[in-house]
Design brief:
single chain; Histone, subunit A; two-stranded antiparallel ribbon; 13 helices; 2 strands
Length: 345
């Protein structure tokens, strides 16, 4: 029966992974593939499991429950090892070889208790205790209001005027952004364009400086870890030992560069100018359509038609010989003298 790997098993596997990399490094290898290290780690795990199982078997045969060094010694002999070479190997690895550092202790995540408003009702006698508790009383019994809303005449008029002012400001800004406009103060707009261009260039320069600073911090942190102990194996040895470590580091750096800038809205030069220039400094260009509200009601298939085509359609709809002309939608027209005389009263 197989069980899912626990947190301790993952830590042990990581230590064995570092041991495999250290053994390859001490034997003269400069690089290795990820798959090869995985195979070596699996062989080391099987080898250690065999030693432990044989040692436990020797311990049980002797009538004991705790394994002693003699049981391990006999297990190595039964597996065909020459135990007389172990002292020489121990003295060899004790002088100037790589040492595997202990794994870092990871603090368990703290689960914050949910916020409660008021006290929950206890379970009645007919409800079992293992069932979840009742929700907060204000969610299904009664919701208390801390303060009564001000419904005076002055407050209502103030809120209505403020809402109207905000609506007008939003509509003006929207129309200036989506429709062609003409500036009444060309020199002032040119000055704002130059300042906006300088602001955009300064923002790009600061963005590049932050990226370079993050890269330097990453490199400095990595170098500091590798120089903490000259006789110890750094935590990032496996990443340096693999062939594609440089590519992985580049991907990590590129991801960290976008962490801070991903939440910033992209601002253009035109948006900066519209934000700095007051709305009364520009006027909207006149439209060639006599009924622009009808063009907004058209479907998506008619959006590709140009303004001239829509103008010709408007003129054709307003003609007298059109069979399906609507008097309520056609633009007003002053009748000629002949038409006025022909009218019957």
């Amino acid at each position: 029966m197989s069980y899912p790997p626990s947190a301790a098993a993952n830590v042990y596997k990581k230590v064995l992974h570092q041991c495999a990399a250290a053994i390859c490094f001490t034997n003269g290898f400069d690089a290795a593939e990820q798959g090869i290290l995985e195979v070596i780690t699996h062989l080391m795990t099987s080898y250690l499991n065999a030693i432990c199982s044989n040692s436990s078997l020797n311990c049980e045969i002797a009538g004991r429950t705790v394994v002693i060094p003699t049981d391990v010694w006999l297990a190595l002999i039964n597996m065909g090892h020459d135990v007389t070479k172990l002292p020489g190997f121990l003295s060899k690895i004790s002088n100037g070889t790589l040492v595997i550092p202990p794994p870092k202790v990871q603090s368990p995540p703290q689960n914050n208790a949910p916020l409660r408003v008021g006290r929950c009702r206890p379970h009645p006698q007919h409800v079992n205790e293992f069932l979840p508790s009742f929700p907060d009383p204000h969610t299904y019994i009664r919701t208390e209001i801390s303060g009564e809303p001000d419904t005076s005449y002055e407050k209502v008029r103030e809120m209505a005027s403020q809402r109207k002012r905000d609506t007008e400001t939003s509509l003006i800004n929207f129309m200036l952004r989506v429709h062609p406009r003409t500036s009444l103060f060309r020199d002032y707009e040119t000055k704002l364009k130059d300042e906006a261009a300088k602001a955009m260039s300064e923002r790009e320069r600061q963005k590049d400086a932050r990226k370079r600073a993050r890269k330097q911090a990453k490199v400095a942190e990595k170098t500091q870890k590798s120089m903490t102990n000259n006789n110890s194996l750094p935590d990032q040895l496996i990443d340096d030992f693999l062939e594609d470590s440089n590519k992985e580091d580049a991907v990590i750096l590129s991801d960290s560069e976008e962490e801070d800038d991903g939440f910033e809205l992209e601002e253009t030069e035109n948006s900066i100018i519209l934000r700095w220039m007051p709305p009364f400094c520009s006027v909207l260009d006149p439209s060639l359509e006599t009924r622009p509200y009808l063009s907004t009601l058209e479907d998506e298939n008619n959006e590709s038609s140009s303004t001239d085509q829509r103008l010709q359609q408007t003129i054709s709809l307003a003609s007298d010989d059109h069979t399906y002309d609507n008097a309520f939608l056609r633009p007003p027209r002053i009748p000629t003298k002949e038409e006025y005389e022909e009218m019957e009263y």
